Amino acid sequence: MAFLIIFMLLFSLTACSSLKRISIGGKDEGENINEGPPQDMQSLERDLNELVDRVERQALKTPEDKSQAQGSSDSTNKKNKAGGSDDSVSRQSDGNNTSKGGPAEEKTGQTNGDSNDISDMMPDLERNIGTIHKIWNRVQPELLKKGADRADIDAASDALNRATATMDSKDGLAFLKAINQFYRYIPDIEENMHPQTPPGLMRITYYARNILYGAFEDDQKTVRREMPKIEDEWAAVKPQLKKGSESQINQLEVSIDELQNSLEEQNKNLIKIKTDIVLDDIKALVEKQKK
Fold it and tell me: CB–CB of 275/259 below 8 Å?
């Protein structure tokens, strides 16, 4: 009788354990593949967005920004000349620099003549992109374990390598376009991992950046092509958003409409302002969805 009771207890414990594994997809609780993207992906996305923001501040300067920078430079030069004790020495020094292709004049030409030049940022950017590579290499096995498509991962790796190689050109706009191609694969990779926010919001970010970069390259074809993609993606995303985000949803809807209207003007400064607002509103909506 005692043996029968012990057998029944062991059978019950085994059955409960089996049911627990079945309820979470046939895996142990710690191995649940549907618990969201790996934590490293959040770090990668954060570092990537910070890198893009920094390069944009340098490379995407409108004519108004350049005029303001030039005005500040002229004001500084006047103050320096006013403070000089000997004009003749100053003129002689300037003449020597000019005859030799002096470094002061050359540096000024690089800074004011080509806003895309990211030479001064390179040491920091190289460290930043190196960190992104390390995180990306580390996270790939876990992405595959969670069901990511190997083809998407390989395509993302190729895009990241191309963006890194583009840095050699010191062309900020070319780098931004290239790194955005790496970013485009992240929502596809995370699609089936039940992330906290719909991957479609990242796709809208990708399209909005394409519009911004296209505007600064005077590439109206890209600008016109990407706007309908934003509208289609937004229509697909809205039903997936959690309740309680109505204010942020309405704000983003207005911002997308405003961006659409701004494209007709073909004005870089206006498009930059409207795109930045869309991107800020996406960030606000993402944060609200996580609460």
Answer: yes
Axis crossing angle, helix 150-166 with helix 172-183, rounded to the nearest 10: 170
Euclidean distance between CA atoms 76 and 238, whole angstroms: 50
- pLDDT level of residue 193 (50, 70, 90 thresholds): very high
Which residues contact residue 40 at a Cβ distance below 8 angstroms, ignoring those fewer than 6 apart?
A: 135, 138, 139, 142
CB 84 within 8 A of CB 38: no
CA nearest 47: which of 169, 120, 129?
129
User: How many residues in the chain?
Assistant: 291
Phi and psi, residue 36, nearest 5°: 110, 170
What is the tens place of the pLDDT at every residue in 209-264?
999 999 999 999 999 999 999 999 999 999 999 889 999 999 999 999 999 999 99
For the record, the structure tokens of 238 come out as 């809205």
* Torsion of the alpha carbons at 77, 124, 63 and 97, rounded to the nearest 10: 30
Contact 282, 204 (CB under 8 A): yes
SS3 assignment, position 170: coil
* Cα 109–Cα 112–Cα 116 angle in degrees, nearest 5: 105
pLDDT tens digits, 260-285: 999 999 999 999 999 999 999 999 99
